[in-house]
Amino acid sequence: DGGITQSPKYLFRKEGQNVTLSCEQNLNHDAMYWYRQDPGQGLRLIYYSQIVNDFQKGDIAEGYSVSREKKESFPLTVTSAQKNPTAFYLCASSPRGQETQYFGPGTRLLVL
Amino acid sequence: AQTVTQSQPEMSVQEAETVTLSCTYDTSESNYYLFWYKQPPSRQMILVIRQEAYKQQNATENRFSVNFQKAAKSFSLKISDSQLGDTAMYFCAFMNNNDMRFGAGTRLTVKP
Fold first, then answer.
1. B-chain residues within 8 Å CB-CB of A44?
2. Quick check: B33 and A99 CB within 8 A?
3. How many other C-beta atoms are found inside a 10 Å radius of the C-beta of residue A77?
4. How many Å apart are CA B108 and CA B38, to the nearest integer?
5. What digits encode the pLDDT tens for the residues A2-59?
6. What is the SS3 assignment for B63?
7. Is the previous residue joined to A8 through a cis bond, with omega within 30 degrees of 0?
8. How far apart are CA B59 and CA A53, in angstroms?
9. Burial class (CB within 10 angstroms; exposed 0-12, middle 13-18, buried 19+) of B20
10. Cβ <8 Å between B100 and A33
């Protein structure tokens, strides 16, 4: 099946620990995105990448890092510098030249 | 910066009836795209409908249609013949040059 997968579904982080959220797509989409969703709010852009080995900061990039070594993969690392990481994280992708973004199922990150 | 406003935090509708969700946005751009996404309890973001700003004709997708008023910067979603499966959060989104902005969402409950 073609689609976007995110793993794990739930992730727990201890104080001071870095964690990495996985996002993989087999849709051959060029662009990929990471969003954060807090309760009762819309999505906010963390990072996006339009091509391999290139990515841009979104509105709330502080405390996060990404890489785009392969077209199909766009992992997000939540670093210890992110003071309030508890949230729902959504990955999305879009084909070249198209504006519609398609979303993965999300990862719920909780801080212990 | 572009902003998206959804003024109805919660709405309810009886099954088989029609409901309209409101969305307004603020931009100085002339070329952009507008979207409605649905987020059911599973939290998967699902595209409902999209509209290109350069098209005057309102988009329709089966029971879903929009009323796009470019001068008023308004983009409402009409759901006809509401079904129990339409119960979800609905997010309005604005896209220009890879910058996607989401509203805070409207929680829609369809009652039997």
1. 102
2. yes
3. 14
4. 10
5. 699 999 999 998 888 999 999 999 999 999 999 999 988 889 999 999 999 999 999 9
6. coil
7. yes
8. 36
9. middle
10. yes
